Amino acid sequence: MPPTPPPPQSATQLTDNLPAPPPDPRPIVIYPSGVGEDTLFKKLFDLHPDTFAFTVSHTTRAPRVGEIHGKSYFFIDKPMFEDLISQSASVEHAHLRWEPVWHE
């Protein structure tokens, strides 16, 4: 039985030996809570700039200080959000109980 390799010491070690991405240009990245999302995304963007891109979600809540429409979120009203849902134009959505808003 071959020896067990030592566990990685950093997120970089986790990604250094990954194989090339599959030919499908639409990869899905699944990661556990606490993975270091910013570090992971930066590494993926640096290694595969033509594969990965940020998405901008829609929300019915008001913008917070410093948030920019179209960059932070698309801030839309509830009827427009409900239209997106009825047209199956939203991949996923949720009604947040603690806030009277829709969020994608």
UniProtKB/TrEMBL annotation:
Recorded protein name is: Guanylate kinase-like domain-containing protein
Q: Which domain of life does the protein's organism represent?
A: Eukaryota
* Residues covered by region (Disordered): 1-26
Q: Can you tell me which family this protein belongs to?
A: Belongs to the guanylate kinase family.
Is Transferase set as a keyword in this record? Answer: yes
Single GO molecular function = GMP kinase activity
Q: Which PANTHER family match?
A: GUANYLATE KINASE, GUANYLATE KINASE-RELATED
- Which keywords does this chain's UniProt record carry? Kinase, Transferase
Q: Where is the Guanylate kinase-like domain?
A: 25-104
**GO CC, one annotated term:** cytosol
Give the matching PROSITE patterns: GUANYLATE_KINASE_1, GUANYLATE_KINASE_2
Q: Identify one Pfam family in the record.
A: Guanylate_kin
